[in-house]
Specification:
With 558 residues, the chain is mainly β. It has three helices and 38 strands.
Length: 558
């Protein structure tokens, strides 16, 4: 080290880095000899040395020492929000040290890991070691699926990864802390979750009164694989990471940890083979992952993994459409899940579980829904073949609903014709009919408190039947759209789009077949901005019939 220094004082070794503003200190011993083993007593001497860094003099010196016989000390952790207290973890036990008097450190609490409280009655080993859970249909909920678990193959004493022989001095039957994490945001009573090398998780709670610190050690909260790292986050959730196996997400509930979900870890991959076993032109990797007891054989392929959050009872069959609907336009998450069947519609509230709130939302339950959505905050719209229904859900369906016992609804019906397709957007509803082919532009206005009405702004007869509609789902500022200004040689299209409000543009697909861009303004009415015919040919140059668009999407970029 160019700028560093090393001092040897009665077996003390201190090292600094090569930078003057950084200091690195390694383990030191203040024993009378450089050997920390007391050969006369045959015991290991554990030493805790407090160092003082004089910033002005730029020197480091030892100011006090705590020493006692015991196993190897492997880490020191400060107790948060309690100045001067720290845990010293050793092989087999843990000591709570009072370091408030830097010249006289002392131990105020000691616990032995060899006589820890009894474990929970449930056997969590199988649950935590299980690589993946499949549902009764045999479909795994992760992309990389475990096919074969290799646990219990190697006996405890025959582990090929164990490099410590029976005569090795490093092998010990005593437990030690391998991972820990403090509870976030708790400034009154510090709580720490820790895992010992046998896979058991415990919690220590530290409180302070006039008599000093009080330490409460819990019973075993969970038993699984030995953790490499723990992370306690808000809400009582604990992420437990395993070095060579799948981790897990645990939740602290009523004094015990409950397994919530796995954290997939395919490392280390010890061997693999890439094959296309079913001639799918989609290679798959067969990999040997992890080591005993959590080793597994897995299939890994590229794609998007799906996680099953909830499964409803088998009463919803024959679904013809599904939509997610927000309660407010500005909401970050959806509030309702609308399911449409051949002759029925159900509305489920979205949360930790799905609850049927059809009656509290107000949607007509005995019809098939063609489209639905939100036109404004708290105003939900259902489009079915007979009409359009506007609903104000109650607080039973959503906390932001109206404080009444029943939802308030109003409807609009076309004259003696059926609706074939429709779409709902911000402050606008568009529906189309067939035989004859009409397109209707509908609006919503307030009549009084909690009272709204749907009114027709314009309807136009079309030459071709509409197959699909796409309108904006969010509010846009009233500013002109210039997204076709770069068109070369299309002055007509550019002239049509000057001053057009992008929030009033929608797209339709027709049976012509074609895709058309339309604009609607109350004072100007409906007009076609652009139209494009759909024509497809096969490899022989023959036109392909039936190219009717089934879905269109209007996207906007900044």
């Amino acid at each position: 080290m160019e700028n560093g220094w090393r001092g040897i004082f009665c077996g003390c070794f201190i090292a600094t880095s090569a930078y003057e503003d950084r200091l690195a200190m390694f383990s030191i011993s203040m024993a009378t000899s450089s050997d920390i083993i007391d050969k006369k007593r045959g015991a290991v001497l554990t030493e805790l040395v407090l160092l003082e860094w004089a910033i002005i003099e730029n020197t480091v010196r030892a100011i006090s020492q705590y020493a006692e016989s015991g196993h190897l000390a492997h880490s020191i952790v400060e107790v948060p929000h309690s100045y001067g207290f720290a845990f010293m973890f050793r092989i087999g036990d843990a000591l709570l040290m009072d370091l408030r008097d830097a010249h006289n450190p002392c131990c105020v609490y000691r616990t032995s890991f060899d006589i820890l409280p009894t474990s929970v009655e449930q056997n969590f080993v199988e649950e935590s070691c299980r690589v993946h859970d499949g549902d009764e249909d045999g479909i795994f909920n992760v992309a990389a699926s475990a096919l074969l678990e290799l646990k219990d193959y190697v006996a405890k004493g025959d582990d090929p990864m164990n490099i410590d022989s029976d005569s090795g001095i490093l092998k010990s039957s005593s437990k030690h802390v391998c991972a820990l994490s403090w509870e976030p945001g708790n400034e009154k009573n510090s709580r720490m979750m820790f895992c010992v090398d046998t896979g058991e998780l415990f919690m220590i709670e530290i409180s302070f009164d006039s008599d000093g610190p009080r330490v409460n050690l819990s019973d075993c909260l969970y038993r699984g694989l030995s953790c490499k790292a723990l992370l306690w986050v808000a809400g009582g959730f604990l992420a437990a990471l395993v070095e060579m196996g799948d981790g897990m997400v645990l939740h602290l509930e009523q004094g015990r940890l409950v397994h919530r979900s796995p954290i997939q870890n395919i490392a280390p991959i010890l061997d693999m083979a890439v094959v296309d076993c079913h001639d799918e032109e989609h290679d798959q990797m067969f990999a040997c992952c992890g080591v005993t007891p959590e080793g597994s054989l897995r299939i890994i392929r590229s794609g998007i993994s799906l996680e099953k959050l909830w499964r409803t009872a088998p009463i919803y069959q024959g679904i013809t459409g599904i939509w997610t609907v927000k309660m407010k336009v500005s909401d970050s998450y959806h509030s309702f899940l609308v399911l449409s069947f051949v002759e029925e519609t159900r509305v489920l509230s979205v949360g930790l579980s799905f609850t049927d709130v059809t009656d509290s939302v107000g949607f007509q339950p005995d019809v098939s829904t063609l489209a639905c959505g939100i036109v404004d905050d708290g105003l939900l719209v259902q489009i079915h073949r007979n009409g359009v229904k506007l609903c104000l859900p109650t607080t039973v369906a959503h906390p932001d609903g109206i404080p009444l016992s029943c939802p308030i609804c109003t409807s609009w019906f076309p004259e003696n014709i059926s609706i074939s397709v429709g779409a709902v957007g911000y402050n606008s509803i568009v529906v189309a009919t067939s035989s004859p082919c009409f397109i209707y532009i509908l609006g919503v206005r307030s009549v009084s408190a909690y009272q709204y009405e749907i009114y027709e702004m314009q309807h136009v007869r079309l030459q071709n039947e509409v197959s699909c509609i796409s309108i904006p789902h969010k509010h846009f500022d009233k500013k002109p759209s210039f997204f076709l200004n770069n068109l070369v040689g299309n002055s007509c299209a550019a002239a049509l789009l000057i001053g057009v409000n992008i929030g009033r543009i929608f797209v339709i697909g027709t049976h012509k077949p074609s895709v058309e861009i339309l604009s609607f303004l109350p004072d100007e009415g409906l007009r076609i901005l652009a139209s494009g015919a759909i024509s497809l040919t096969n490899t022989l140059g023959t036109a392909v019939s039936g190219c009717i668009p089934q879905d269109v999407r209007k996207t906007c970029s900044s």
